[in-house]
């Protein structure tokens, strides 16, 4: 034991007596010193005494639709970390096509007596779904928080990215580059975020593009989420003469890039593409993807704080918290072909000449 005490004392740079006081949970040790000893235990691979182990404040369910889209693991990682910092143990429930449903996961979580549940892009985002399932949970009562989707008559906190503003910012970016025929590619109409993106895109196009209202319907493609849906929709829009597309997800945007290349077109020379999410690796695709960034960390932390407040009996306001998206400009957007001929030149340099694009970071090729 003395050898182990000396190892721990040396690692923590304290005396063996101090280590002994910490291990026996005795008073008289500064908090930072106590933490240094506990960290030394962890680093050296010793198991903490039972009395020093942080007790879980309870289990919290985290229901996400799938992990194929990298934005959902990004949300899950921040939510799980923030829950753990608050003393809760997260239980991740991932849905797959033909697998366990959201309702079945909820039953499993209830059997485990969870303290609350966070839903990410769940059935609350589907206007065709029966939302009584959430009212039943609230009536138990069980605290719940929902991310990206809104049901006005469900008394719970909602956390969303402002999809309408995201679409408007994307259109404004492309219009500033000289594009006018700007298409929209997003998912099925029954989803709340999709409806908001469509509304934002239409508002911005009517205000900025100069196209008549009658032409807009032909420039909006509602399709399946994912690379394949984006590719098919982009092909149809290219037939209608678009020079830029705003996509409902980064994966859809990668599908649009693939569709352009299969026709022998270049991105951004012939087609500018804007994604949505700024999920991991989008800075390293070929070309690096211009996209609307969801503030994942801020949204996830806000959702967890609202849930923890509910669990602790401090009711969070039952309303929707909207977070602003951020336009991240990379290499998939450029001057419209009519205005710039797909040139690789960018804005004039200070000396009056023009400068070529800087080399992009290492790229992950989009499959053909």
Radius of gyration: 25 Å
Termini, distance in Å?
62 Å
Query: How many H/I helical runs?
Result: 13
Low-confidence segments, given as residue ranges, are 339-368
Specify the helix fraction band: 25-40%
Strand content: 15-25%
Kindly report the spatial arrangement of strands forming the biggest sheet: 2-1-3-4-5-11
Shape: elongated
Q: Please outline the major beta sheet.
A: 6 strands, parallel
Average pLDDT for all residues: 88
Helix-strand pattern: HHHEHEHEHEEHEHHEHEHEEHEEHEE
Q: SS-based structural class?
A: alpha/beta
- The number of distinct β-strands equals 14
Which key phrases capture this entry?
single chain; 368 residues; alpha/beta; 6-stranded parallel β-sheet; 6-stranded mixed β-sheet
Write up this protein:
The protein is an alpha/beta fold and 368 residues long. It has 13 helices and 14 strands. It has a six-stranded parallel sheet with strand order 2-1-3-4-5-11, with helices on both faces.
Summarize the structure.
This protein has 368 residues and is an alpha/beta fold. The chain has 13 helices and 14 strands. 41% of the residues are buried.
Could you outline the blueprint of secondary structure elements for this entry?
Layout: H1 2-12, H2 16-23, H3 31-44, E1 58-64, H4 71-85, E2 88-94, H5 102-111, E3 116-120, H6 132-139, E4 144-147, E5 158-161, H7 163-176, E6 182-186, H8 192-208, H9 213-216, E7 220-222, H10 227-239, E8 244-247, H11 250-262, E9 272-277, E10 290-293, H12 296-311, E11 320-323, E12 326-328, H13 337-340, E13 345-348, E14 354-356
Parallel strand pairs: 1-2, 1-3, 3-4, 4-5, 5-11, 6-7, 6-8, 8-9, 9-10
Antiparallel strand pairs: 10-12, 13-14
């Amino acid at each position: 034991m003395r050898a182990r005490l000396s190892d721990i004392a040396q690692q923590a740079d304290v005396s063996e007596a101090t280590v002994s006081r910490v291990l026996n949970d005795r008073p008289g040790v500064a908090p930072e010193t106590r933490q240094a000893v506990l960290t030394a235990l962890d680093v050296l691979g010793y198991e903490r005494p039972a009395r020093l182990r942080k007790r879980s404040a309870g289990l919290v369910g985290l229901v996400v639709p799938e992990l194929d889209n990298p934005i959902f693991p990004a949300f899950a990682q921040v939510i799980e970390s923030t829950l753990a910092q608050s003393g809760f143990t997260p239980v991740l429930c991932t849905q797959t096509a033909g697998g366990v449903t959201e309702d079945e996961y909820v039953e499993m979580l209830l059997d485990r007596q969870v303290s609350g549940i966070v839903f990410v892009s769940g059935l609350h985002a589907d206007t065709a779904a029966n939302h009584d399932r959430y009212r039943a949970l609230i009536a138990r009562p069980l605290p719940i928080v929902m991310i990206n989707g809104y049901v006005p008559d469900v008394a719970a906190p909602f956390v969303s990215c402002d999809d309408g503003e995201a679409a408007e910012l994307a259109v404004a970016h492309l219009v500033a580059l000289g594009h006018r025929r700007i298409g929209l590619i997003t998912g099925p109409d029954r989803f709340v975020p999709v409806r908001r993106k469509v509304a934002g895109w239409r508002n911005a196009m009517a205000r900025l593009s100069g196209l008549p209202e009658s032409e807009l319907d032909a420039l909006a493609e509602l399709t399946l989420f994912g690379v394949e849906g984006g590719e098919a929709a982009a092909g149809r829009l290219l037939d209608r003469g678009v020079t830029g597309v705003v996509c409902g997800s980064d994966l859809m945007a990668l599908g649009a890039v693939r569709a352009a290349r299969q026709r022998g077109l270049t991105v951004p020379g012939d087609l500018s593409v804007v994604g949505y999410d700024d999920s991991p690796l989008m800075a390293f695709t070929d070309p690096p993807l211009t996209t609307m960034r969801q503030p994942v960390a801020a949204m996830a932390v806000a959702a967890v704080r609202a849930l923890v407040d509910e669990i602790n009996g401090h009711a969070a306001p039952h309303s929707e918290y909207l977070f602003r998206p951020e336009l991240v400009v990379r290499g998939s957007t450029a001057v419209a072909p009519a205005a710039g001929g797909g040139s690789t030149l960018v804005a004039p340099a200070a000396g009056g000449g023009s400068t070529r694009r800087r080399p992009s970071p290492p790229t992950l090729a989009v499959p053909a």
